[in-house]
Amino acid sequence: MTSxxxxxxxxxxxxxxxxxxxxxxxxxxxGPDGAISDLAKSIPRELFQQHLSSRKPAIEDxxxxxxxxxxxxxxGFVDTHNHAxxxxxxxxxxxxHILDWLDKVTFPNEARFRDPEYARRxxxxxxxxxxQQGVTTASYYGSMHxxxxxxxxxxxxxxGQRAFVGKxxxxxxxxxxxxxxxVESSLKDTEDCIAHIRAIDPEGHFIKHVLTPRFxxxxxxxxxxxxGEIAKANPDLPIQTHFNEAEQEMSFxxxxxxxxxxxxxxxxxxxxxxxRSILAHCCYMSEYExxxxxxxxxxxxxxxxxxxxxxxxxxxxxxxxxxxxxIRVGLxxxxxxxxxxxxxxxxxxxxxxxxxxxxxSQGQDKVLSIAEVFYLATxxxxxxxxxxxxxxxxxxxxxxxxxIVSSKSRRPGxxxxxxxxxxxxxxxxxxxxxxxxxxxxxxxxxxxSVKD
Length: 452
Ligand SMILES: [Zn+2]
Known about the structure:
alpha/beta, Urease, subunit C, domain 1, TIM Barrel, 14 helices, 37% helix, globular, binds zinc ion, zinc, guanine deaminase activity, zinc ion binding, hydrolase, EC 3.5.4.3
């Protein structure tokens, strides 16, 4: 990242949940620091040089990217809920209910990350795989192992992905071979990972540790309380957990914590519900919990694929209600629990889930639009991660996390063919609904090209 860059062509981004902006003949200038210094609209190609001539540096010092017709720039995708160790088990264990799936598939798999070499191999493939699919920011659950979690953080930094990386806390209701030995060791390992991540990225510019109690079922009171203390002492650290995901999980949580009426009160009691909390799923939300989540300003990671594929339910989170109340919400691939690790697929499944909600609510909660699911995948996700000042769209001053999408991929793809009369918006819709990673030609994080 040494020279300034300039991009000319179609630029598409979100300004708000239903505000999709399509800019034709757009011009984006990126400084050597990876920040967007100018976004100009309607600059025809022939006036492009003239527009730049008044600026510094001189035009020959820019790296120039012309986008051809059918190509366009969009912001990088934000994956607000992702289990990195499950990269190697994707697709397995379908038709099982969630707690059985954890026991039979997930825990045996995650236990393998005690071996740092195994962790390095799988995590390397995982980070490459998500970058290839345009995920420029990810909030990762690691395994319970401190060493493997540090390796994941190292790899994200090295490969250029913006990431929250969390050592998973779990000291009960998991097999002996895969759980934290004691509350103290779990907290000590957490502190150890926090210190490591601060050492490799002192300003937390790309990587932050995220406090990651797997969910209340796997954490004793003392562990939740200890994590709450760490959260209080470190107001820069995000927090993530699973929240009201499935009936089987919710009723087991109730039997473990009989003094709490609901999960909002439970996590709040332990100091784990804050503006920095990313609550995965939130499929079942009472009026009271919606109000608590709104008042505390927690973020919601909507994971429609796993919600509708992990057996034991057909969960469709009330996303329309979240948007109506201005509760921050983004998308998660939750990739171990479903059939896809693609945010594009998560957008499509979010449409399916919202159709289900429309039926369930007898027409009250209208289906989401393409503009809305695109918002969830970009600016919405950035808001969930409290990163909206830095990424999520192409506002001047933000960092340039972006994808160049091409409707004419080098390898033959299956995206709907582009026809002569197609507008940029039509081509965009064809990509969102039928494109895949073959159409993601280049990926940038803070101006650095990160896809091979
Ligand atoms: Zn999950």
